[in-house]
## 1
Amino acid sequence: MRLSREELKGLMKKKLMRAGLKDEHADITAEILTWSDERGYHSHGAVRVEYYSERIAKGGITTDPHFEFKKTGPCSGVFEGDNGCGYVAAKKAMEKAIEMAKENGIAVVGMRNISHSGSIGYYTEMAADQDLVAISFCQSDPMAVPPGGTEPYYGTNPISFAAPTADGRKVVFDMATTVQAWGKILDKRSRGESIPDTWAVDEKGNPVTDPNLVNALLPIAGAKGYGLMMMVDVFSGILMGVPFGKHVSSMYHDCSKGRELGQMHIVMDPNRFCGLEQFKKNMSETCDELNAMPTADGYDKVYYPGERAVMRKEKAYEDGGIEIVDSIYEYLISDDIHYNRYDHKNRFAE
Ligand code: NAI
């Protein structure tokens, strides 16, 4: 099923409002979910709406949150999310970070007590759109096994980085610190497809290809990915004074309670370093050089991070719209808010 941007965003917004989100919050959430689906990040698009709707309907996302931003220094601040919608909190916190970075050269804005905020590349791209450089990190529920361990301890803890170029292109690096984001496994489940045996392990720690048997995800690059996921948790969790490591709430544990997640945005103004013009010129040059590199057998081109996501977006519209799994479309057009499928489920249930 292919949908236009307006149609998909409209259906998601309507469902989220039906679940209880107010207009502005549903609009921002649906916009960011559409941003993900149109770039082929289906793991963080419409597939999530039913879960969010259940959590909103059961009270686990505050529908009228008391957001509060406290500036703690010229370049730092803390955004209290009151367990409101994570998409809205992360967007508003990035707006603050952008404002402060323009004023003071650098801004470090942490968020406390927010719910899931989806594809975090959306927020770093906001800064690149304003000629700034940004990094964002956030916590997610424990799902990854540390090297030599037996239990999931850290989440898929993503990192995103974005920067502008001189010609409108943007580098948007946006990745989970596990081999695959959990949402990619959800997406494979929803499509009835198998997964490569390098993504995850079963209850006994053996590699699995059936996405329904996943019991823990593997960090990227062994101990190095494990170090990165710890660093993400330190910056966005321990530093924010919210639950950390294995104490981070599980997505499906109790949909009536706030998730208390942490996130951090760091934004820098190139004018405070080499100067904006030189920075953007050299960013364009580095992207051009990467694109021009001779390729190894079996590859058509060397891409810079985020390039393929933009190509997927352009191709989706050429092909008649954003591709959505039929069962998700059926849910979106139905009158049902949710099917009670997520609450109190094992973290790997859905
Ligand atoms: P991915 O594996 O599809 O891509 C990771 C990065 O590598 C991207 O920046 C992509 O542009 C780049 N890339 C991939 N192939 C490339 C190639 N051949 N050449 C150049 N660059 C290439 O992304 P992943 O790790 O599956 O994450 C998907 C989404 O899930 C992200 O938007 C992330 O923010 C989100 N996420 C959110 C979480 C949350 O709790 N909020 C948790 C984990 C992930």
## 2
Amino acid sequence: MDLGIKGRTALVCAASKGLGLGCAEALAAAGVNLVMNARGTEALEASAEHIRQEYAVEVITVAADVASEDGQKLLIETAGEVDILVNNAGGPPPGTWQDWQREDFIKALDANMLAPIALMRALVPGMMERGWGRVVNITSQSVRAPIAVLGLSNCARAGLTGYVAGTARQVAGKGVTINNLLPGIHATDRADSLDAAVVNAKGVTLEEARAERAAGIPAGRYGTRSEFGAACAFLCSQYAGFIVGQNLLIDGGATNITI
Ligand code: NAD
């Protein structure tokens, strides 16, 4: 399917691996040129080169911590006039509700709420002036139903979701859509590290931890980055201009809710 976005430019944050990489690959497959970001250079350069070879699009890399003001400044300067912004960063560590101190909350808010807000504030005005833009924020299923051990994520993502709910409706009239994708469990490094925490806590093997988690997902498996990326590319397509301020769960049915 031609998504109608060939030749557009996207900034994809935290994109050297995992869900961000899935989004970058799907956008590249639709002919979108990329500015790809991650903290380290090695995996970022490897993923960027793979995408250049595979999809023949232009790819610029920016190694920077998107959670830091310096990183955001560098990304905004390098990205210039982007049509598409995919906000993403690593998720906060697990714990219990009494563990977290003020500094832990500030770190989570910086990465998973304030960084996407800063990039939207910087890049959405240009999209509005040009009359077309797409923003997709990668959040979490924890927005719809809290995940007890991820209290920091529950808080930061809820804050971002509130910001998007109000903002999306203020910019839609200029051809810019902002939506959130809510991943459930996907087979990425993040899922590995959460499963490793279960291994330590319960004394089971990694395979047992994965099987137990997969059994709780109606689809019976973890999601893949390419499935996730395809949903992102659709939300960034010319066909998604009437989808505004939505929160789309991609979780294999794991979140047991009616709407
Ligand atoms: P991941 O850990 O597999 O990938 C992380 C990617 O982000 C890497 O490319 C890494 O370099 C980059 N990154 C991390 N922090 C960064 C930062 N501060 N600045 C720049 N780059 C950074 O993670 P993932 O599984 O792809 O998850 C992406 C997001 O989705 C995370 O916020 C995660 O919490 C959330 N999420 C993931 C799952 C899942 O099952 N994978 C489920 C729910 C929510």
